[in-house]
Amino acid sequence: QLQEQQKEIENMMNAIFKGVFVHRYRDVVPEIRAICMEELGMWMRSYAASFLTDGYLKYIGWTLHDKQREVRLQCVKALQGLYCRRDTAAHMELFTSRFKTRMVSMVLDKEPDVAVEVVKLLTLMLENMEEVLTEEDCQSVYPVVYVSSRALASAAGLFLYRRLLNPQREAGREPSRDGDNRTFFRRLLAFFIKSELHEHAAYLVDSLWDCAGTRLRDWETISALLLEESPTEGLADQQEKALVEILAASVVQAAEGQPPVGRGPAKRVTGL
């Protein structure tokens, strides 16, 4: 009897989905399309056994291309609710392979608040789906640390830190302040020099300040690296110059507590 009732409920849910949702997710009113995406995400989280399938996920994937900001935003937030847990993310492999290119491209969405949530989404994918993001995918996110919108740059800073700079990411060990920070600064220097935006150290430091401010304020380790004379441990001239720029930007950031000139809540993504 219980199985019969469950089957009856599922049939009713399918009828409602096909009779209402399938028509309204393309409604001419953007608010209705946004509500459809928000609710679909909720159904998937609450009733994963019934709704967390590729047959339902495809509607979110298609709607990532919607022209209206609020609709794309609700799609991304619905996906955040699924990628934030390993158990639900495990069901997303086919969806990810089909729509990952679109999600990565949305890092440059014309609406900064959408782009911010997309970078947060990619950070969740980085944490909860092993190696799903290729190096090429990540290279699309890294330069965003230099954009003028602080919220977007900070989100990209966290992504960069988690993917490339955090010494404990692959080690899984307790922090060892001196050794870990040396590793952090060497990786940061390698990224900064490779990015070839040496006049923008202040922007890079500001982007990382919320997630790695404690490391950036480790003047002792920075000084030790600059004074190191060992041929194996010492820095090359280009590295020393870059580290001095990062040190100066960190001191200014710690003293003033303000983002660099030109960075703020910009209306459009600029500065790439």
UniProtKB/TrEMBL annotation:
Gene3D superfamilies: Leucine-rich Repeat Variant (1.25.10.10). The gene is Stag3_0. GO terms for molecular function: chromatin binding. GO terms for biological process: establishment of meiotic sister chromatid cohesion. It holds the Pfam family SCD. Belongs to the SCC3 family. Residues 21-106 form the SCD domain. One of its GO terms (cellular component) is nucleus. Keywords: Nucleus. The lineage of its organism: Eukaryota, Metazoa, Chordata, Craniata, Vertebrata. This is STAG3 protein.
